[in-house]
Amino acid sequence: MPVQALLRRSVASVRGPSSFELLTKLHRIKEAPLEFLAEYTRDYGDLWGFTVGGQEVVFVNHPDVVRRVLLDNARSYSKDTFQYRQLARITGDGLLTSDGEVWFSHRRLLQNAFHPKHYAELVSIASEEAHALSLHLHSADPRKSGVIVDIHSRMLRLAMRILERMFFSEDSSGEVSQLVEDTEAALDYIVQSALQIPPLSLWTQLRGSRGFKHRLRRIDCFVHCLMRQHQKGNARGATKLLDLLMAALEGRAEPAMSEHQVRDEIVTLIIAGHETVATALSWTLYLVAQHSDIQEAMRAELSQVLGAAPSLTLEELPRLKLTRSVVEEALRLFPPAWLITRRAIREDVLGGHIIPAGTLVVISPYILHRHAAFWREPERFDPMRFDPLHAKTPPRFAYLPFGAGPRLCIGHQFAMLESVAVLATLVRHLRFSLVPGYPRPRMQARVTLQPHGGLWLQVQPAQ
Ligand code: HEM
Q1: Ligand 1 center from residue 409 Cα (angstroms)
Q2: Looking at residue 140, what is its pLDDT?
Q3: Ligand 1 — pocket residues by CB below 6 A?
Q4: Which residues pair with 148 in a beta bridge?
Q5: Cβ atoms within 10 A of the Cβ of 380, count?
Q6: Residue 8: its pLDDT value, please?
Q7: Looking at ligand 1, which residue's alpha carbon is closest to its atom 6?
Q8: What pLDDT does 173 receive?
Q9: Are 359 and 80 in contact (CB under 8 A)?
Q10: Cβ contacts of 101 within 8 Å, gap of 6 or more
Q11: Domain locations in the chain?
Q12: Residue nearest to atom 27 of ligand 1 (CA)
């Protein structure tokens, strides 16, 4: 055995549950990971850990320590973790999962597609799509008495449609519902097969894996079709992003990319950019439905800022302060990306403990966003805490819906603009309320923080 291995230190100084205890609770942990994280954080504090199957794991829940992992010493951590390896089964080596030089050069190239000069177009597409949805829901309710709708499935399609128009092709005749279905099924499969709940028979595994490959083939087909159309010069309405990637493929831009790399970046943006936004919007609408006073205040703000203007533009967005605060607060309570993981590639010291190379470091925005030392009444929905005139801002690293540091979400500004534009347009035209007699939606911590079984709300015209 090499001397380094003998000398390798362990995270033994970190308190936490024993492997045996974890084994006895395995089923519950898989079923309700957020409860497990909250419970052990209550028991052991802001830094605790355990060892499973020889893998050392440390959970960190203090803004200063989170800052060290994601920003100050980010070079000592990689994305080579179980979470990202599972995602890479769909996305390949795209921005979300790659590291090092490849990640750096691709990020620099793709950053151009997220430039502020595209904000106005994004707001216009997002408002247009949200308006089309509100018209559709109006027509489904001629008596204005309210219809019961699974908002989450609507938001998934809406977010995919916006993504498609913004990033791939205005003209795309791609079947958005099919793409949503395929990506959702593929994401479900990787979660199921990672958790193996309930223990799957060989037959179920085989069938699942065949279904997964089939979904992947269809996603690839969508991507290759976009690329072929672009190459044939049929890409009327092709977007900046597709242009950038195709230029890299054809050697007209730096870095040059292979067809496989272009495919991986496109699939990464589809995966990273649609379910996250849809989930954020679904939970936001749920909170808005629950708090009719805030919904009314939003409508008052909208009518003051927009007057009789037919639609929303980028210019008005900064004045929709309450609408933005509602989105920020919803992202605090229900952060779609509830888990961020890193692997230490060299030894580090976190919170006074030695963290050996190879340790898995886990951060949960969901748990951090409810940390009582940094958030007053953390369980309460209070958009005012994001109003700079009324509230004391919490430390930057206590609020991480989009991560932080060099791996900060590339789409964070887009996601905020898109969410505010969609929410403003929907609330302007529709009234959302809880469905009497329906149970509260349950959170399901999958790849993102999903509402289990959809999110059903009563929707009627606003006036
Ligand atoms: C509310 C919506 C969104 C949320 C909550 C969200 C959240 C996040 C988080 C937490 C990360 C960092 C993960 C880590 O550090 O391990 C991330 C990364 C990323 N996100 Fe988002 N995201 C959202 C929307 C979007 C959109 C709209 C796009 C693109 C269209 C996008 C593309 C990406 C990409 C490519 C990365 C990897 C960036 C890198 O490592 O360079 N996201 N996102």
Answers
A1: 4
A2: 84
A3: 95-96, 107, 268-269, 272-273, 276-277, 280, 336-337, 340, 401-403, 407, 409-411, 414-415
A4: 458
A5: 10
A6: 40
A7: 402
A8: 56
A9: no
A10: none
A11: 1-91+338-382
A12: 273
What number does the ligand 1 atom closest to the CA of 336 have? Answer: 5
In the prediction, which pLDDT does 280 show?
Answer: 98
Class in CATH terms, 1-91+338-382: alpha beta
pLDDT along the chain (463 residues), means of 10: 40 86 90 95 96 93 98 98 95 97 96 94 96 93 88 96 87 76 94 71 77 96 90 65 91 92 96 97 98 98 95 96 98 98 97 96 98 96 90 89 98 98 98 95 95 96 89
Q: Tell me the C-alpha to C-alpha distance, in Å, between residue 15 and each of 4, 12, 40, 44, 406.
A: 24, 8, 10, 7, 30
What integer pLDDT is reported at residue 9 of this predicted model?
Answer: 45
